[in-house]
Amino acid sequence: MTYSSIQESNLQDLHGKVAIVTGGNKRRRSTGIGYGTVQFLLRKGAKVYISARNEQRAQDAINQLRKEGMEDGIVEWLSLDLSDPRLAKRSAEEFLKKEERLDILVNNAAIGAVGPYKLNEDGLRDVMTTNHISHFAFTDTLLPLLKKTSREDKSDVRIINVTSMAHSRVEVSSFATKDDLNKDYGDSFNGYLDTYGLSKLANILHIKSLQKKLETENYPIICLSVHPGPVLTDGSKGFLSSVPYAGRLVSFLFGPLFFSSWRKGAFTSAFAAASPEVRNKADVYKGVYLTPIAKITVPSKSARSAKLADELYDTTEAVLKELFV
After folding, report:
1. What PANTHER family does the annotation carry (predicted)?
2. Using DSSP, how many helices (H) and how many strands (E) does the chain show?
3. Which end of the chain is more exposed for a tag (fewer CB within 10 A), N or C?
């Protein structure tokens, strides 16, 4: 598959389907991967919820989507604050009051690789909270509806976590404790990138565990993790601005050669969410890690660890149980 072939015709019809994309709002200066994913799904006829904290930016995205053309898709805003797992759970509960089905969940929103990162009042590092723990709580609360939808005739339910190749920067030995979740690699450019990478490793391991559990329970849900590649968005611009001077100069001069547009960057997520190939070859795609363009790729050693996946799942559940008491 090539970038020239990226179009809605690669995706299946989604009329009657309901999707959620976290972080699909309009950013200050540009649009991002989440926005692009929403656009792909809308143009195939889905009803898509843009889940974001800022209502104005979500509305800006909705207005822009309408201007650019969304065929007969439907788009709505769902308030979602990932800075606190309790708020993420509340958002999912509000969605459950609105809809009787959920076919596609794309956990896309994230704090980028730009520190400093901080511990919040619950003693959890903000980047791990937003990128993994709150998304875990959001997904877990929606899971009964995803399971119910998957039992319907001709269903095709999918859960996608958007991760990053930065996950391969860190190799860890344990996710058995809260301290393992909170690991900090220091206040430097490389340190911030590694701490961010730890949260992105968690995204892949979450998908690995979730797929295993769903298969054990005999639910035909396909779970995938996706690295969208280098995309020129507000997040990547913020990251590039933190690069040491020589790196910023190289990025300014050669960035357009190495960074793709938001639409190209969104396609691997859209492929994971709506390509008929994924369902037709479900046994091939279940639990895999995709990189551009829609290519099955082997992730890092830590990301392939069943032990780490189980530990992360159990530890995250324990952390959330404490918060929800």
Report:
1. PHOSPHATIDYLINOSITOL-GLYCAN BIOSYNTHESIS CLASS F PROTEIN, PHOSPHATIDYLINOSITOL-GLYCAN BIOSYNTHESIS CLASS F PROTEIN-RELATED
2. 13, 8
3. C
pLDDT tens digit sequence for 197-251? 999 999 999 999 999 999 999 999 999 999 998 765 555 445 445 555 545 554 5
Q: Is 294 helix (H, G, I), strand (E, B) or coil?
A: coil
- The domains located in the chain, with CATH, are 14-324 (3.40.50.720)
Residue 56: exposure state from Cβ atoms within 10 A (0-12, 13-18, ≥19): exposed
Full-model pTM: 0.91
Q: Six-digit token pair at 200?
A: 């992105």
Nearest to 198 by CA among 213, 181, 186, 214: 181
Q: Is the pLDDT of residue 287 over 50?
A: yes
Contact 319, 178 (CB under 8 A): yes
Q: What is the CA radius of gyration of the chain?
A: 18
Name the catalytic one among 35, 196, 289, 313.
196
Does residue 196 carry a catalytic annotation? yes
